[in-house]
Amino acid sequence: MAGENKRTKGVWWAFPFHQLLSTVGVPVLGAFLTFTVSPPSEARWILTETPYFPVQIALALVIGFGLPRFLRHWLMEWVWALPFSILCVSFILTPLPLAIGSGIISAGVADPNFAVSTSLQ
Fold it and tell me: Would you say residue 110 lies in a domain?
C-alpha cells in the first residue's frame, strides 16, 4: 500500500505534462530536424504539403516507442491512449456523407448531364 501511494503521489501533473510535451514536442522537433537537413523552401514543403505528414508520424512513432524504454516512466505509455480514444470516438460518432446531389447520383437516379459536363471541360 505504501509503494502504491508513493507511486501515485504527485502524478496529477505528469499525465498533462507528457500529453502537452508529446503534442507540442513532436511538431517542433520535426520542424527543427527538417530545417536542419534541408533548405527552408524544401523543408516547408516537406512539413506542410506532403500528404499524411510522414515526418511527424515517423518521429512520433520513434519517440513514442523508444523514449519509454529509456525513461521507464509508467505513465508515458498512456499518452497514446487519449488521442487514440478521441480518434476512435470521432470516427464512430461522425456520420458518413451521402452522395445525394453530388453530381453523379442525384436522388438515386444517374445524372445524364454529368458525363456531358465533364467531357466538355
Answer: no
Looking at the structure of the chain, the number of domains it has is 1
Q: Which long-range contacts (CB under 8 A, 24 or more apart) does 9-12 make?
A: 11/75
Per-residue model confidence as pLDDT tens digits over 36-79: 999 999 999 999 999 989 999 999 888 888 887 887 777 777 78
- 74: cell is 509508467
Residue ranges making up the domain that contains 82: 2-94
Residue 71 forms part of a structural domain: yes
Whether 42 and 105 have beta carbons less than 8 Å apart is answered as no
Q: What is the pTM of this model?
A: 0.61
DSSP class of residue 78? G
